[in-house]
Amino acid sequence: MTNLFFKQSPWSCAAAAGAFALLFVACGDEVTEVTQVVGMQVLEEGDALPKCTADNEGAMVYSVDSAAAYYCVNRNWTSMKGKDGKDGADGKDGKDGADGKNGKDGADGKNGKDGKNGTNGTNGTNGSSGKSCSAVAIDNGYKIVCGGDSVGVVLNGENGAKGDTGVAGTSCTAEEVSDGVKITCTDGKSFTLSNGADGKSFVDGWMVDPRDKQLYRVVTIGDQTWMAENLNYKTENSWCGGGIGENEGDCTKYGRLYTWAAANDACPEGWHLPDTTEWNKLFTAVGGKSTAGKKLKSQTGWNDYNGTSGNGTDDYGFSAFPAGFRNDDGSFCIEGGSLAYIWSATEYNSSDAYLMSLYYYSEGAYLGYNYKGNAFSVRCLKN
Q1: Which helix (DSSP H) or strand (DSSP E) does residue 61 occupy?
Q2: pLDDT tens-digit profile of 355-383?
């Protein structure tokens, strides 16, 4: 049951209308049934409203048959039931949206260019590609031509004078042989500038030490150019290799032996004593340390081992020769033929330095170290 309480005093129209609209109209315009209203006259169905006069100004009457309340204002009964709201106008239909335009077709992708075929890698070689060499006689010696290019001149010394590039006071001859050009000098030095064959051989060159005009074979292995003979330049603290006991050996055959300090200053200008990195690079170029000894040793001059020759195959023309060494006490320990110790520029400590070693009984090549005061061979490497 809903109880309504009103203060019996005049209201403003706006206030009263707002109050009753709130109290009598429920959601969806459903009317709440009133069974008891306090302070308000209730008229049954069919009863007429009483006369609205100054005497009952402000009175309120509820009519059951119309389910409406009335109040007397200005001698007129005014219904408290709110007017029906007008039906809202139907909303207009929205316009149809414009059809979306079809997107443009994407452009066809261009065909990519075919990649170029990669260039075949250059075949690795043991030495320079083969070239045919010949010797051409000139007034004072021979001009050597390999592969159509002049690679140098061997000049004969005259009356003990030093030729420009010949050995001092030495006459040399050059003759063409089956595998190249053979150079023979009256000081006993002889070598062949070999023609390449099947890409496995090499073309030897030579260099002349400007200090004493000595002639040395050189060979390029990989990207290194080496002297192909032991250095034979006389300095302080150097001795002829191949000696035994207190006796020096043969400088022409074995080259000289140098202390480490002397070795570092022994190579001619444009050449240097190789360090351990450069020795290892050589070993790699000839197939590794385990077989480098066999490939780098000369084909003659090495002792036999248990009936087997200790000579090498000299596949690259390096021609390592067994000169032995000299102790710092002045004794030559190993006569030529057994081993080759060749200095490195790399120090091991304050008293020792690294060297490369080859032995008549082994096919390998080794890097060890030894006392700087002992004397070993030198091979110069081109800068």
Answers
A1: strand 60-63
A2: 999 999 999 999 999 999 999 999 999 99
* 184 in Cβ contact with 173 (< 8 Å): yes
Q: pLDDT per residue over 142-177, tens digit each? A: 666 655 555 556 656 543 333 334 444 456 777 777
- Tell me what pLDDT residue 91 has: 58
Name the residue ranges covered by the structural domains of the chain.
13-79, 127-199, 204-382
SS3 157: coil
Give the DSSP H or E segment for 294.
helix 289-296
**Cβ neighbours of residue 159 under 8 Å, at least 6 residues apart?**
169
Lowest mean pLDDT among 18-32, 311-325, 330-344: 18-32
Q: 47, 63 in Cβ contact below 8 A?
A: yes
HEC string for 166-223: CCCCCCEEEEEECCEEEEEECCCCEEEEECCCCCCCCCCEEEECCCCCCEEEEEEECC
Neighbours of 186 (CB within 10 A): 13
Q: Give the long-range contacts of residues 32-38, CB within 8 A, separation 24 or more.
A: 32/2, 34/2, 34/4, 34/62, 35/1, 36/1, 36/3, 37/4, 37/62, 38/3, 38/4, 38/5
> What pTM does this model have?
0.54
pLDDT of residue 105: 61
CA atoms of 323 and 254, how far apart (whole Å): 5
Strands 60-63 and 41-43: parallel
Cβ neighbours of residue 341 under 8 Å, at least 6 residues apart? 324, 325, 355, 356, 357, 370, 376, 377
Token pair, residue 89, equals 């106008």
Task: Give the whole-angstrom CA distance, residue 350 versus residue 348.
Answer: 7
DSSP three-state, residue 240? strand
